[in-house]
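anyone else get weird line breaks when pasting these?? whatever heres mine. first is seq + tokens for prot A
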Amino acid sequence: MKKTSFSPVCDACANEMDRLTIAKDYDALASYVLQQEDEYAGNNDLECAPIFFYIGTGNSTLAHHYHRSSSDNEQEITYRKKALFYFRKAISLLESGDDNHVILLPIYTNYANDLDSCGRVIEALRIYRKALSITDSFGMATANYGRALSFYA
């Protein structure tokens, strides 16, 4: 089975997103995410799928930040929509390959988390189940699936 290789640029992008998130430098994170969106806007290469995941995660982080820190939810909604878009783009590219199941686990889970945050619980549950169909031992998906199910309890 051929192993998909991802660009070293993906690691650099992930490291920078992590650095800015840990530093809670949300202005710099917003700027970096926008820079990545502009740079990869027309790119549909499988090797760049992780970058779309990181862009989605960066947008999700910014949506959570605005949710917690602002009464004006327009920014939160904008970042949440962008997060969902980039998660779907990464998923679409990775589902087209045969050997990308493991990398899909955190992407499905983060995508489902954002769906849940938008109140789209049924869709979130479907995506959590998709992650758990790859492996039922992925703790992040299992825990979030249970939390989403509690909505119906």
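and prot B, same format (seq, then tokens)
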Amino acid sequence: MAAPLSPKKSFSETLSTTNRKIESISLVWEDLNFSIRAKDTVKSNFFRPVYKNKRILRNLYGRASSGELLAIMGPTGCGKTSLMNVLAARVADISAANAKLTGAILVNGLPRDDEAFRRISAYVLQVIFSFVLMLRHNSLLVGRSALSPFDCQ
């Protein structure tokens, strides 16, 4: 007679009870929707603010796995940074009245535990990289202008 199947452990239980190194991680998101409560600038006035739900992410599906490169591309304002913030568990208190997140985010097939996920993952904001590049560009520009003030491009 076969032994009964044990129930699946949560992501945080698996993380805390495993003694071996986790070699690969798979992050899957299904039917992900994120909306915020924002002030309606057209219908609001100083004495009577009117709020509306603004949908930032709509019905998104995707997968990211260890050892693979994933590019998230799109025009300005399409929700790339919001998606990264949601996936990295960086969104402020979701239970608040001004934000709503629906859908599933799974880590290795298990529902993601935000606190445990923050302990094993990292996310570097794009602002840091653009600032470093801007400093280098400005330094080169100032150096060029000092050497040749009439031929600076």
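btw re prot B: The chain has four helices and four strands. Confidence is low (pLDDT under 50) at residues 1-6.
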